[in-house]
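Dear colleagues,

As part of the handover before I leave the project, I'm documenting each prediction I ran so the next person doesn't have to rerun anything. This entry is a single chain, and its sequence is reproduced below.
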Amino acid sequence: MVKAFAVELGEAKSSFPRSGVSKGLSILDFILRLIAILGTLISAVAMGTTNETLPFVTRFIRFRAEYDDLPTFTFFVISNSIVSSYLAISLALSIFHMLRSHAQKSRILLISLDTAMLALLTGGASASAAIVSLAHKGNTKANWFAICQQFNSFCERISGSLIGSFVGVAVFILLILLSAVALSRR
């Protein structure tokens, strides 16, 4: 009777070793964090170094496009920098989880902080994606003309920097799900 009750609550022994699976989840967590660091850091650097200058009628009058002309792109660079810094710091906890795969409180802390960083990264990436869309297509009702016809390399770089940031968003979703699975296995 007691054994049947334990099985019903999910406390019965399983046939596969839990520590090996938990260690595998911790290693996957570490690898995903490295991928997210690369995506967010490269996105921040690509956006932060984006500028293009076009000559006008004379060589003394020029049009210049830089990322910091729009506050949305500045927010994008700051949010990606904060998230990549957080990910670099969180690698220490990820290594700790590889060594002690049964740690629960630190996993709960990581889920909470990962969720906050996911919100920050999603906000920066989606706001910048809206501005990039306007730069490509324009909006005649708002008198926003498509600038990507003139500033080709500027638009290519800001569009490319969005890719790394959205890869970071996808990896954060996987990290949160992975941490939740690791916690539910205890």
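Helices lie at 2-8, 18-48, 71-99, 105-137, 152-184. DSSP finds five helices and two strands in the chain.

All the best with the project,
I.
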